[in-house]
Amino acid sequence: MNYKNESIISVGLVQMACSTDADKNLETAVDSIRSASKQGAQIICLPELFLTQYFCQTEDAKNFSLAEPLPGPTSEILSRLAKELQVVLIVPLFEKRTEGIYHNTAIIIDVDGSIAGTYRKMHIPDDPSFFEKFYFTPGDTGFKSFPTRYGKVGVLICWDQWFPEAARLTALSGAQFLFYPTAIGYKDEDAKVSKQQISAWKTIQKSHAISNGVFLGSVNRVGRENSLTFWGQSFICNPFGEIIEQGTNKPHVLIARCRISDIEKTRQEWPFLRDRRIDAYKDLSKLYLDSND
């Protein structure tokens, strides 16, 4: 593939195993970001809630002590790192907004160390071993993209990845890159269907890249934490839905070169945005179409 005279942005995903030691996790993240930067990555994304193990497997008020304000200690460390390396960072954190209001949040840090944007997870699951409604207030940021040195970045978090409306609205705000920091895995009793789960997970996200004509990066954690096994399989795909870099179930730093002109080329060939019938979609604002509506 000839990249001469093309605008190319290198994207890095940090697929990591998370320990019970937050300091160790931060050290792993910093080392991985440095590694990604040395390999040419310009936009680097960490996995969901990377500072801790996935605490939402139980409902325990003690876990609220894991949250931190924004800006806070972690964001300040990583802001300095972004400025030093001249990279854009997507940093998912457990945010304490105020007493009694906590969010599952991602901040976008630009190359000058400033916070270019904040996204708070909008769709909050409540399933066995994923008791997030106990901890997180649904986000109020809406679906946005944020200008950075290396392009317009949109972020959605984990459960958000199953909702096409979220991807579409983020793309309509101008996103060129759509990132999904994630913590997704299976319980022991679900191991037999894990291949189907992973396939569905990849398919739904690749469909967002295709239907919106954007580059997409999904980054998961790996390893066993209590009753959950996190499957990794982080990947980056192009606007045609083709996976251009993918991890396995081991810690790994993924790097992919993204040719920006592919966005326009794909949207010209598949003009889904042009052919939408926005005049006919008003019922999407309803929860369900009852027979008497």
Overview of the molecule:
A hairpin with a 2-residue loop joins strand 13 (222-225) and strand 14. By secondary structure, this protein is α+β, with helices and mostly antiparallel strands. It has a single domain (8-285), classed as Carbon-nitrogen hydrolase (Nitrilase/N-carbamoyl-D-aminoacid amidohydrolase). It starts with 7 loop residues before the first strand and ends in a 24-residue tail after the last helix. It has helices spanning 22-38, 73-85, 164-172, 194-212, 261-269; strands at residues 8-15, 43-45, 88-98, 101-109, 115-120, 126-127, 130-131, 145-148, 151-155, 177-181, 185-187, 215-219, 222-225, 228-231, 235-237, 243-246, 252-259. It is globular, with a radius of gyration of 19 Å. The model is unreliable at 1-5 (pLDDT under 50). The protein contains 5 helices and 17 strands. The strands form 4 sheets. A 6-stranded mixed sheet has the order 5-4-3-2-1-17. Strands 8-9-10-12-15-16 form a 6-stranded mixed sheet, with helices on one face. A 3-stranded antiparallel sheet has the order 11-14-13, with no helix packed on it.
Largest beta-sheet characterization: 6 strands, mixed
Strand content: 25-35%
The CATH architecture can be named as 4-Layer Sandwich
Integer tally of domains: 1
Strand order of the largest sheet: 5-4-3-2-1-17
Written as H for each helix and E for each strand, in order along the chain, the element string is EHEHEEEEEEEHEEHEEEEEEH
Q: What's the mean pLDDT score? A: 96
The shape, in one word, is: globular
The CATH homologous superfamily corresponds to Carbon-nitrogen hydrolase
Helical segment count: 5
Based on CA atoms alone, the radius of gyration comes out at 19 Å
The structure class reads: alpha+beta
Our measurement of the CA-to-CA distance between the termini, rounded to an integer number of angstroms, reads 53 Å
Within the CATH hierarchy, at the fold level, what is the topology? Nitrilase/N-carbamoyl-D-aminoacid amidohydrolase
